[in-house]
Every structure is written in C-alpha cells, then in structure tokens.
Amino acid sequence: MEPTPHTLVTGASSGIGRSAAVRLSRERNLILHGRNPQRLEETLRMCLNPERHTVWSFDLKNPGELAGSLTPLLVASGRCVDAFVHCAGMVTVLPMRSLDYRVAREIMKVNFFSAAEIINVLLKKKVNSQRLTNILFVSSIWSRFGARGHSAYCASKAALDGLMRALAVELAPAIRVNSILPGAIRTSMAAQGFDDLTILEKLARDYPMGTGLPDDIADAIEFVLSAKARWLTGQQIVIDGGRTVNMSLK
Ligand SMILES: NC(=O)c1ccc[n+]([C@@H]2O[C@H](COP(=O)([O-])OP(=O)(O)OC[C@H]3O[C@@H](n4cnc5c(N)ncnc54)[C@H](OP(=O)(O)O)[C@@H]3O)[C@@H](O)[C@H]2O)c1
After folding, report:
1. What is the CATH number of the domain that holds 107?
2. Residue 249's CB: how many other CB atoms inside 10 A?
3. Which of 6, 61, 66, 84 shows the smallest number of beta carbons within 10 Å?
C-alpha cells in the first residue's frame, strides 16, 4: 500500500508553528512536533480533521537520537513526509563576553542541526520513499542583521539559511527549499519584549506596519508550500512589516 503523505511541522506546540499547523490542517495530513505533549494535544484539537494528524514529541536538543525516534514513526505506520516545515527554535541572550558553549551548542542543535538531521532521515529512500518535495525553514531577520547579546541565535539562523541555499541547489528539481524570515511576532518566545514598555515603544517606531501575528507567517508558509510557488526555491523571504527597510532617524 502507498504511504500516506504528511506535512511535518516542528514547533507545532506553540506560536508560529501552531498557527501554521492549524492553517495547513485544512488541506494536509500533519505530523505535529513539539516537546510538550499537552500543548501538542491542544494544537491537535485546534486543527481541522484531527483524526488525520499525529503528534511527535521529541526534544531537539538531542539531534543524535532523532533518527531513532522519527524513522519508526514513518516506517511502522505507513506515513511519509512530502513537506517539512522547521518552526521549532530557541533563543537565549548570550553576550559574547560570557559565551557559554553548552548554551550556544543547545541553540545550534535546536535551530540548525535538528533541521539537518530531520532532512537526512527524510531523504532516506527506505524511510520516506523519495516523497519529499518541499522544505521550509522559519529563520529570522536576525539571520541577516545583528542584535546585541544574540550572536549564537543570529549564527544559528544564518547557518540554517546557508543550508537552505545549498540544499535548494543540491535537491532540485525534486525538492524546493526556502526560508521565511519573520520580524517581531507576538508569541511566547517574544513575550518578554512585548511586555516591556521601552521595547514596545521602540517596536512601534521601527515597524512601519506594526509588529506581526503568527497568522501572518502561517499565510506565507501556506503559500510557499503550495503549487502557486512551484518556481520558488533558494530564497530568504522576509516578512517583517517593513522593519528591515526602515532607515528613519526617529
Ligand atoms: N516570535 C518572533 O518574534 C520570531 C521572530 C523571528 C523568528 N522567529 C522564529 O520562529 C520560530 C517559532 O518561534 P515562536 O515565536 O513561535 O516561539 P514559541 O511560541 O516559543 O515556539 C517555539 C517552538 O519551538 C519548540 N521548541 C523549542 N525548543 C525545543 C526543543 N528543545 N525541542 C523541541 N522543540 C522545541 C517549542 O516546543 P515546546 O512548546 O514543546 O517547548 C515550540 O513549539 C522559531 O524558530 C523562532 O526563532 C520568531
């Protein structure tokens, strides 16, 4: 029997990943990934056709154990993955002066190495039957620009976008590979900033269109995965309400 195609969304237990999952559930079967099983179940209940989706709880700080967890989920169940959206991510303020390699490595593992490891599994013929056609990374505008105390986070997103460009060439024409680079989006990851009046005032000055919502990114994810984007590959797609083109002095 032919395996059933699914879209794998990492970080589906919260924020942008949850919003993307709910949006994609209208037309796709999903594998909802996250760490927190309760929050994953909440996402599942928010999705259309919950019986068509499945959850995968796995801590991406252990990418070395990832293949051993993802492979049986596909092989034993008759599922395959035709689209992979990497939304999972972590950020920790880590000034260079007090660089902590353990924390820096965790950021690299969750934001970058886990995506590479997942793709490695999904490219295995015996595991995924050459079904993969779409890879989409949720990167960040900080992949292109700097932010004090965020060198590890910026480097992890830049690595992700470097991988994106290389794979877009290596895996064409069978697989399209792109990154979406959001600006400030109101989620639990950005909650601290959105709770701070000084930061809120700066965001209001810097974002010509105001800050974004998870659904703004979910809309773009839906488009990039669709047939309407059939010729789109190897691109960093910035969605930031005009933040990175704003050179205003006040
Ligand atoms: N919010 C923004 O302003 C913004 C801007 C630019 C880029 N981004 C990027 O957008 C993506 C989604 O972030 P968000 O804003 O939606 O944040 P969020 O609400 O905090 O969601 C983060 C997601 O990543 C998962 N995750 C974190 N560490 C993990 C680990 N060790 N193992 C497995 N899963 C892990 C979380 O799972 P659990 O809930 O199960 O822990 C959660 O589903 C991230 O890659 C982030 O870098 C966000």
Report:
1. 3.40.50.720
2. 3
3. 61
Per the listing, tokens 């059939």 go with: 230
Q: What percent of the chain has pLDDT over 90?
A: 93
* pTM of this structure: 0.98
| Residue at 78 is within a domain | yes
Is 203 close to ligand 1, i.e. is its CB under 6 Å away? no
Give the strands of the sheet with 176-182, arranged side by side: 54-57, 30-34, 4-10, 79-86, 134-138, 176-182, 236-239
pLDDT tens digits, 12-46: 999 999 999 999 999 999 999 999 999 999 999 99
Please identify, by atom number, the ligand 1 atom nearest to the C-alpha of residue 185.
3
Residue 117 near residue 66, CB atoms below 8 Å? yes
Residue 203 lies in a domain: no
Residue-range definition of the domain harbouring residue 18: 4-186+214-237
Is the beta carbon of 243 within 6 A of some atom in ligand 1? no
Of the candidates 171, 111, 100, the residue with the CA atom closest to the CA atom of residue 138: 111
Does ligand 1 have an atom closer than 6 angstroms to the CB of 36? yes
Query: How far is residue 153's CA from residue 144's CA, in Å, rounded to a whole number?
Result: 11
Counted domains in the chain: 1
206 domain-assigned: no
Q: Is residue 75 part of a domain?
A: yes
Among positive and negative, which fits the CA dihedral 65, 154, 226, 43?
A: positive
